[in-house]
Amino acid sequence: MENMSDVKVLAKEREDMYRNLLSGRIPSRIPISGAMGLDSAIKYCQMDVAEVYWDFSKAEAALDKVCQDFPSDSAPGVGRRYPSYYQILGSKPFIMSSDGTMQHPNVAGMTAEDYDDFIASPYDCIVDKILPRLYTGLDTDSNTKAMTLSKAMKVQSDDAAVIGGISARLNAKYGFVSMAGGATTGPYDFMADFFRSFTGISSDIRRIPQKVIEACEAITPILIKKGKPLGPSTFGQVGIPLHMGPFMREKDFEKFYWPTLKKQVEAITEMGINVNLFVEHDFMRFLDYFYELPPHTILRFEYGDPKIVKEKLGKKHILSGFYPLVMLHSATKEQCIDKAKELIDILAPGGNYMFGFDKGAMDMHGSISENLKAVLEYVYINGRYDDYYKGDNKDPHEALKLKRRSEIINEIDKSINSKYFTVWEKYRESHPELDGRPLNIIGPKIQKYEDMMFNFIINLCS
After folding, report:
1. CA 250/CA 131 separation, integer angstroms
2. Coil, strand or helix at 180
3. 229 within 8 A of 182, measured Cβ to Cβ
4. pLDDT beyond 50 at 2
5. What's the CA gap between 18 and 31, in Å, rounded?
6. CA nearest to 336, candidates 300, 377, 374
7. Which positions ≥6 away from 80 have C-beta within 8 Å?
8. Which domains are assigned to the chain?
9. How far is the first Cα of the chain from the last one, in angstroms, to the nearest whole number?
10. Which sign does the torsion angle of CA 299, 300, 301, 302 carry?
11. pTM of the model
């Protein structure tokens, strides 16, 4: 693919392909989502992971090499776990291992006694109680805490800017398409991951079930806001990884997990964006629940029977995943290609399919590089549709969806009961010195930085 001379033609092909896919039409070919992220790209190029993570300017060479060597319709993922700001904050949830990989130990920043405060004001409880337990740099006096938080937010912003510049250059060089995007977490998973831990939340649903329900409901608007797409467009995806469901009884899943997740997915879809759910581990007994989600929701499966999933969900939703990454380590090239062919035969008919793996690659030892390249090349050559949609694929309702997006976010902002978050209208009321100033410029700027701090705080919790 890197030999295609007209990058603009390739970019237009990809844009049409993804627009068709995301709107439920048959694309010209199966979009390919590669398995490599930043860690595996660094290891593929035999560079030092820790060094690159501390100096992201060194990442461009590794990512560029991956784009040259491995067919894919999107650039390698770069993630958002940057050790610099975690170090400044004294992070417990994310620490760098001896080989440079960012790891997530099992931690709990919230006690069972915090539920009432959390339900009353999730954001205040996070700032006042939970973050100081998760980050030692915030467990201090108010002045030091403010300075630490400011430094951390600045270095995270600087690192993100470097990564953003690299991504933009790779997009331009290789014809990748820029899409609006975002990431958030399901409400029950959010409560379990850093706050109550696996064991804590499992105990809570037996001891204090109503408080768990109320806490999930209280955090849902904030997590909808967290998933707000970057950029004013309805062309893109918001990712949500699903963690805890497979470890729950169905009656608990139905009661605690599903209602707020469904509400969240529906709200983000109403804002004009496709939700991409990473269906981790074994969710097969919950397929009927997934059918309730809005059309064109993307479901990337780590585990399951693709024939059953295609039959139950393939006409309404976009499917991905299933390909076992471990096979690239242990099987022959022919066996790896045969597996890709098997999945294409099952999942590709009628469209609504994006080729992808069950998980992202973390290392490149053994035969994985050669097998990965062979599989991706096979899909690129053989994953074409004869009956693809050739008409106008722009979203005719984009303006209305963007208007609704603004309305939903404004409703959420006004509902956030917090001394640490202020909407522009409230800020304006308490600052009469702004009378006569260009409020149409000042308002969005003040709100922008209010939202930046909000997003930084919530990202520290997931």
Report:
1. 32
2. strand
3. yes
4. no
5. 7
6. 374
7. 160, 183, 459
8. 1-460 (3.20.20.210)
9. 36
10. negative
11. 0.94
